[in-house]
Write a structure and sequence with these properties.
The chain is an alpha/beta fold and 142 residues long. Helix content is 18%, strand content 37%.
Length: 142
């Protein structure tokens, strides 16, 4: 059985910021559709941003929801990782759009990666594999 990730669903504070970040990183992403629905206490907006094959589902924060979730300590998404063909190009687009990318978190013989927070506070990982050899690509260093 083979598999692929179809989508991830993320709740964000600012939908426009979510779209801006995703379309900066992935210029081929576009809005696939969305809606605003009535919920108890107000309205909730959702939007799918991506390609015909894969997308990120963005949902607005429920108006009455508070969260004291601490990433990497409490249940929930800590970051979302994408394989990209040109990490330097992703970083350049993010910098041009005003995002702080920091240094590469890792650069070894077979891959390089970085982590970026968008303005919604969501952490994203981008990795470029420099080999097609899975054994080399998946070497874990601590």
């Amino acid at each position: 059985m083979s598999c692929r990730l179809e989508h991830a669903n993320i709740t964000v504070k600012d939908m426009e910021e979510g779209v801006r970040f995703l379309t900066t990183v992935f210029p081929d992403f576009q809005s696939r559709g969305g809606d605003t629905v009535e919920i108890e206490g107000g309205q909730k907006q959702w939007l799918h941003v991506g390609t015909d094959e894969t997308y990120i589902a963005l949902e607005s924060v429920t108006p009455t929801t508070d969260s004291d979730r601490r990433p990497y300590r409490d249940l929930g998404i800590n970051h979302i990782g994408f394989v990209v063909d040109d990490l330097d190009g992703v970083i350049a687009r993010l910098v041009e759009a005003g995002y702080e990318t920091g240094d590469l978190a890792e650069e070894i013989d077979y891959r390089k990666r970085t982590y970026v927070f968008d303005d919604n506070g969501v952490e994203w990982e981008f990795v470029q594999y420099l080999t097609e050899d899975a054994e080399k690509a998946n070497v874990y260093q601590m």
